[in-house]
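quick one before i forget lol
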Amino acid sequence: MPHADFDVVTLSPSTVRVMHRVAHHIYEFALVDDGDGRRVVSRGPQITFGRDCVIPAWDLVGVAEQVAAATARHTGMID
């Protein structure tokens, strides 16, 4: 599933939220220290389930995490 299927709805120094454009599931990832001094996107997002849809929210977690990490990295929020 391409990254274009997601929109970034929140970007802050502590959080990035992405939403699937069709299903409207929102995935919230914390930006945390990984223990080695680097900032990373947390694993295991908080999910706000969108409308009833044939696209299960859990099937999109991996891509949502990639979108969140790419966005945070591009904007300098994570290493």
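fyi Residues 23 and 52 are 7 Å apart (CA to CA).
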